[in-house]
Amino acid sequence: MRKIYVVGIGAGDPDHLTLQAAKAIGRTDVFFLLDKGEAKQSLIDLRERIIRGYSHPRKRIVEGRDPDRDRTPADYTGTIADWRHRRSLVVEELITEHLKDDEIGSILVWGDPSLYDSTIAILEEILARGATTFEYEVIPGISSVSALAAKHRIGLNRVGQPVQVTTGRRLAEGWPEGVDDVVVMLDAQQAFTKYPEAEIYWGAYVSTEDELLAAGTVAEVGDGIVERRTAAREQHGWIMDTYLLRRQSRLNGSE
């Protein structure tokens, strides 16, 4: 039976790799990489650096083209479902053509596979079709959220209070009910600017050589974050940023 590892490789620093992940990479025969285009070559470069450092000499690397998707869709849920389906077809073809029955394959996932990543869902879709069979194992990694908190030397939640992980799209619709600490990912519209009194702990390209960090109230640092974010995206062709937004506690009637 073919086996696939879904390996979380951390937020960008090769030192984030866990011993479990390193061992899995060392056992891997075929690595599957999805090419996201020239602008995101640095994402491929990091994976290849990790593969060179921990894999065995007989390993193979195969690449497929990651399907494009609409970044500003009218039907967000439907667009993502269609993109995942097209992506699953690419991954299934790579597995079918390049992974033998007794071999191990690996997909290296930025951050942690359980947090805002589609790889697990894609493999489940492939298995559900029934034409391609394999078993798979998920190996956790350091997420961008954990790396962000470490860089700012903060806890994600306050004593006795919850924290919610959401998206910029959701935050733009309003602050989530019942929480005062919100981790936000995938915020292309900079929804934090709606909350000038909140504290923000922001990071882009966290744990890479291009890392950017900022902290303060949105009123103090928000405009600077927008400017730095715009400039960085123009320079690199892409941006990966995350932030914790924290407002004065309103839970239990406290101010």
Walkthrough of the structure:
There is one protein chain. Helices cover 35% and strands 22% of the residues. The chain has 7 helices and 10 strands. The strands form 2 sheets. Strands 3-2-4-1-5 form a 5-stranded parallel beta sheet, with helices on both faces. Helix 3 crosses helix 4.
- Describe the strand arrangement of the main beta sheet, using strand numbers: 3-2-4-1-5
Please tell me how large the radius of gyration is.
Answer: 20 Å
The outline comes out as: globular
Structural class: alpha/beta
Unreliable stretches (pLDDT < 50, length at least 5) are none
Number of strands: 10
Q: How are helices and strands ordered from N to C?
A: EHEHEHEHEHEHEEEHE
Strand content: 15-25%
User: Overall pLDDT, averaged?
Assistant: 92
Cα distance, first to last residue?
A: 58 Å
Q: Biggest sheet: strands, sense, closure?
A: 5 strands, parallel
- In which range does the helix fraction lie? 25-40%
Number of helices: 7
Can you summarize this structure?
The chain is 35% helix and 22% strand.
Describe how the helices and strands are arranged:
Elements: E1 3-8, H1 19-27, E2 30-35, H2 41-54, E3 60-65, H3 76-98, E4 104-109, H4 119-129, E5 135-139, H5 144-152, E6 164-167, H6 168-171, E7 181-185, E8 199-204, E9 212-217, H7 218-236, E10 241-246
Helix pairs in contact: 3-4
